[in-house]
Amino acid sequence: MEIRLEEITKNYQRNNRKISVLNGLNLTIPKGKFVVFSGDSGVGKSTLLNIISGVSRPTSGKVYYGKEEITGYNEQQLSDFRRAKLGIVTQNCELIPYLTLYENLELAFELNKTPVGEDKKKDIIKLLNELGLYNLENEYPKSLSSGEIKRAAIARSIISKPEVLIMDEPTANLDRKNVIKVLEILQKYKESGSMVIISSHEGQAIDFADININLSNTRCQEKQIFIA
Questions:
Q1: Percent of the residues in the chain that have a pLDDT greater than 70, as a whole number
Q2: Residue 139: is its pLDDT beyond 70?
Q3: Residue 168 to residue 162: CA distance in whole angstroms
Q4: Mean pLDDT of 29-35
Q5: pLDDT over 90 for what percent of the chain?
Q6: 3-class secondary structure for the chain?
Q7: Do residues 159 and 121 touch, judged by C-beta distance below 8 A?
Q8: Banded pLDDT at 48 (limits 50, 70, 90)
């Protein structure tokens, strides 16, 4: 399914000042694309990802997934939609602190009421290994490095194979080897037919993308994308 944004505006009130982060943005993302939002800090990359994922509501405008307008959903409907359709990674990369790394990934299946049989257990271990988290499945988040926590959060978002992955700076503060490793896994996921949408300052991420949208100059690199 494609994602379509119509006339998205997002304003914030700071003291007596109104700050406009997005102003009348129109955007269509075709199914099965790897999209990178790039640009300077403060141009609205995180805000845009939050609006696309339904974590934040726009001041005005509409967000569609196919024919579904999620901006018309109440909070429970949005929560159900995200759980069923989306895999989300925020900059904070929150893991459940009292669950092991393996249990954090297993939770993604449990939330979707998917039985965790032997095949799913193998999938969890395989993905952790692919992301360089060897033999860490029984560790708790407090014993992991920031880079390991980030890769674990990425693994958790991917493991249940959602239709759309939305990630805020997933390669920030990773070494080059792990940046490439993460991007290769995201590309593989995209090639399976799903959509990947990330924000990034990394040149490597832009190299992997089908579409790069630089929010600093509102230009794009594919004709299907229109930004007002």
A1: 94
A2: yes
A3: 16
A4: 92
A5: 57
A6: CCEEEEEEEEEEEECCEEEEEEEEEEEEECCCCEEEEECCCCCCHHHHHHHHHCCCCCCEEEEEECCEEHHHCCHHHHHHHHHHHEEEECCCCCCCCCCCHHHHHHHHHHHCCCCCCHHHHHHHHHHHHHCCCCCCCCCCHHHCCHHHHHHHHHHHHHCCCCCEEEEECCCCCCCHHHHHHHHHHHHHHHHCCCEEEEECCCHHHHHHCCEEEECCCCEECCCCCCCC
A7: no
A8: very high
pTM score, whole prediction = 0.89
Q: How far apart are CA 89 and CA 151, in angstroms?
A: 10
Strand pairing partners for 165?
Answer: 87, 196
- DSSP-derived pairing of the beta strands 219-220 and 60-65: unpaired
Distances (CA, A) of 27 to 62, 96, 214, 220: 11, 34, 13, 10
Would you state the structure tokens that stand for residue 35, as one six-digit string? Answer: 């999209």
Which is nearest to 83 in space by CA: 109, 119, 117?
A: 109
For residue 219, what are the CA distances in angstroms to 39, 58, 134, 200, 212? 10, 21, 41, 16, 9
pLDDT digits (tens, 9 = 90+) for 53-112: 999 999 999 999 999 999 999 999 999 999 889 999 988 878 999 999 999 999 888 877
Domains (ranges, CATH) in the chain? 31-57+75-220 (3.40.50.300)
- Per the CB < 8 A criterion, the answer to whether 53 and 42 are in contact is no
pLDDT in the model for residue 224: 47
